[in-house]
Amino acid sequence: xxxILVIQPIHEEGINLLKNNSNFEYEVVNNVDTEFLKxxxxxxxxxxxxxxxxxxxxxxxxxxxxxxxxxxxGYDNIDLEVSKKKDITLAITATANAVAVAEHVxxxxxxxxxxxxxxxxxxxxxxxxxxxxLPKTVELWNKNILIxxxxxxxxxxxxxxxxxxxxxxxxDPFVSKEFIEKRGGTKVDNLSKTSKDMxxxxxxxxxxxxxxxxxxxxxLKSMKKxxxxxxxxxxxxxxxxxxxxxxxxxxxxxxxxxxxxxxPPAANNPLLKNKKVFLxxxxxxxxxxCMTRMGKETIxxxxxxxxxxxxxSKKVKL
Length: 318
Known about the structure:
This protein is an alpha/beta fold. The chain is 34% helix and 16% strand. The strands form two sheets. A seven-stranded parallel sheet has the order 8-7-6-9-10-11-12. The chain has a five-stranded parallel sheet with strand order 2-1-3-4-5, with helices on one face. Strand 10, helix 11 and strand 11 (254-257) form a beta-alpha-beta unit. Helix 1 packs parallel to helix 12 and helix 5 (98-113) packs across helix 7. The chain is globular. The two termini are 27 Å apart. The mean pLDDT is 96.
């Protein structure tokens, strides 16, 4: 019988898959302290993990570990080097969250462009008759948007952007021009040059040495003053200090962040008080439907690994 450690709770439908499979025994833990996890992981054959850090120290303590199943698509919380050395497979829920995140991106773009929070507050605070004093909103029709990263989320997002009759440009060195054009987009090869002509930009790229702080002051000051930037990928891709400065200097129209370099963000993070940024607490995928799908897919990936049917598209190349 295989032993599975579920680090951080997942949707009950995922747990039910484990309950109903006699080939596996499991334990769900909330404690993510290093020493605790080291004691729990020793004899595990597989683990699932959400956002907690899975350090090399913890992974090294595992004697039988063969599969790490990530509840989500990002994996910067996992020590990849140690995982590779121990020949451990890393799987992601590649098909579960695209719709939820794409919808959240559109929600952020619309909230910012239509000044949703400001207009709502105006009515609720009894200032309805002051509406003519409010700054105007902007339309999405015929605006240019750059989607950086064209995996499943980017592909779900382009459908929604085209529904608003936006002009969609795609930056992804690993996706062909033909694939992008077939889905209604225009492939671009240089993010910084293309960004100068964009009215919106949505980031769906991984966090690594090449992408860290890729959205910085130098890039921001070259962009159009009506541009909206959305980051629902990983904190650290956007330099938060530079973003706050650019917003205060009116270099861009607004920004939406679902992720932060440090989570939760520090109390003194200036973006928390900046009225030109719309924030959510890393919850772009937190729809009821998506959490159900991710919980089930997280566990199904473990099952598929052990019976040899795990799809390559769900494996992370280490």
